[in-house]
Amino acid sequence: MTRKLDVRLHDTTMGIWQDDPNDPTFKTDIFAGIRGLLWRRGWKVGDDPACHHRSLRPSHRLARKGNLIASLQVAGRSIEFKCWAETWPKDNQNGHRYDFNKRDRLDYIDRLSLELEERAIIRWLEARASLSVSRSRPYPSTGRITALEYIEQEYAESWHSDKALGRPVPTGDYNRKSADGFMLEHGATVWTTDEKGRLIRGTAFYHINNMWWVVTGRHALENKGCHDIYARRPDNVRRKRNGRSRRFRLERELANAIRREDEKRAELLQQILFSDQPIYRIWSRKWNAYYGPNYSGYTTDEVRAGRYTLAEARREVRRVSHILHAIGPDGRREDFAGAEDAA
């Protein structure tokens, strides 16, 4: 039986998907074959230091050729080949491999080299399987497509689109209710925030569920939940709406001050964050770890754990009381199940 493979290209990532999930030779034939192809084409292939689990190391490889660095890994019925370089100023603190829009950041020669490698892998696959190749459209920020063209193409390909209108339609008011309590309208002028919490104005176009696109420029596009969009011009437009990121940053600085045993700075930061309110941490029995700051992630480090007021801790613990409990300022466990708490 002819093997069927889907090759999906996005930015500098090539995803290879097998049609048959029960084919045991996918790893030995395709993954090992691509690894050998890279080696023959001059790549130095070895272990990926980002993989910390010994049992997974045979399925993860790191390759280098000139300025190009690539990770090759297999999981189940998919293989991922992802390229990057270290020739641009990184945005992600975890490294260049986690930056966005990597293809446009590559030097011209490196970009051409990557295209040659992609073609070589596709030719090698075509000789061994029935192949379907697709490439995701570029995002407007690349400058190769406008925000409106991007939305039009999304509408044309989305099975959620209403046949008569040619676009998706919100299914309920809960998918249209804005941050200021009004109902969002397709094509209306709205206000939302950028990544820094600054207010920006744009035009709203419905996407899916409670998500809306906000076009803020020819090549500028935001994908926002309706609860992050204002239908009316907010007061004091110069004030940043960055309370969540501000608190996350302050909690991180507080943890750093405690680590350094800088008592004055830690006391000041705690006063800024919580005034004189008692502080609670939230423990998950499911993950055996504390909540991180802003209800995001988990950590076993008590210093790095998120800090919550009594009202915040009570509300979250009651939401999933079979999994969570709070740790009070005196170290006592709090389930908020007593008569006083139920009032």
Please tell me about this protein's structure.
It is built from 8 helices and 16 strands. The protein has 3 domains: 4-135, no CATH class; 140-228, no CATH class; 243-342, no CATH class. The chain has 343 residues and is an alpha+beta fold. Strand 4 and strand 5 form a beta hairpin. The protein has helices at 26-40, 102-105, 108-126, 147-157, 243-259, 263-274, 310-319, 339-342, and strands at residues 4-10, 13-18, 44-47, 60-65, 68-75, 78-84, 130-135, 189-193, 199-208, 211-217, 220-225, 281-284, 289-291, 298-299, 324-327, 333-334. The mean pLDDT is 92. Helix 1 (26-40) packs across helix 3 and helix 5 (243-259) packs antiparallel against helix 6 (263-274). The strands form 3 sheets. It has a 7-stranded mixed sheet, covered by helices on one side. The chain has a 5-stranded antiparallel sheet with strand order 14-13-12-15-16, covered by helices on one side. Strands 8-9-10-11 form a 4-stranded antiparallel sheet.
